[in-house]
Amino acid sequence: MSIGERIKKSRNEKSLSLRELATMVDLSASFLSQIEQGKASPSIENLKKIANSLDVRVSYLIEDEEVKKNSDLIRAKERKFVESVDSNTTISLLTSSNIEKSMEPILYEIGPGGESGRSYYTHSGEEFIFILEGSLDIYIEETVHSLHEGDSFYFKSSQKHRFKNNSDRRAKALWVVNPPTF
């Protein structure tokens, strides 16, 4: 089942019309329909908004039900990921969503110009970022933090935040979120 099909399934389970969900996440109903049909790709920001509005984790929208397992071992070739063309970003889950956990480790690969979205967002919890390759600008409130390979950064998720790769190289970052939002 694709991400779009899972969004539609969750929307129907919540008895929400396409228009109602679109209003909740501040997207047009036609764009949301294209996402559900697999004809468009949501930004990271919009994917999170959709998951929150449907009261599911982003990992639910990414993972195949049949491959979920109650394990703490994820082989590189078994990793589930989602590519956001709009954000020029790939997100890989480093744990199964099927296990109880208090943190969510995620691997982000952000292409040149890639970003979380044009708007800031907030949620409860805290985040830790470690830059594996390249560089990434993290916008917290009114401050920009330029992180480079080997740098790490911690912040409270209740602060307005977003990210953008302003370089001409791909950036790769290990991101840990507590509590899990993915």
What Rg is obtained from the alpha carbons, in whole angstroms?
16 Å
* Most strands sheet: 6 strands, antiparallel
Mean pLDDT: 87
Strand count = 9
Strand order of the largest sheet: 1-2-3-9-4-7
Question: What can you see in these coordinates?
Answer:
The protein is 23% helix and 29% strand. It is of the alpha+beta class and 182 residues long. It is globular. Helix 2 (18-25) crosses helix 3 (29-36). It has helices spanning 3-13, 18-25, 29-36, 44-53, 58-62; strands at residues 81-84, 89-93, 104-110, 126-133, 135-140, 143-148, 152-156, 161-164, 171-178. It contains five helices and nine strands. The strands form two sheets. It has a six-stranded antiparallel beta sheet with strand order 1-2-3-9-4-7, with no helix packed on it.
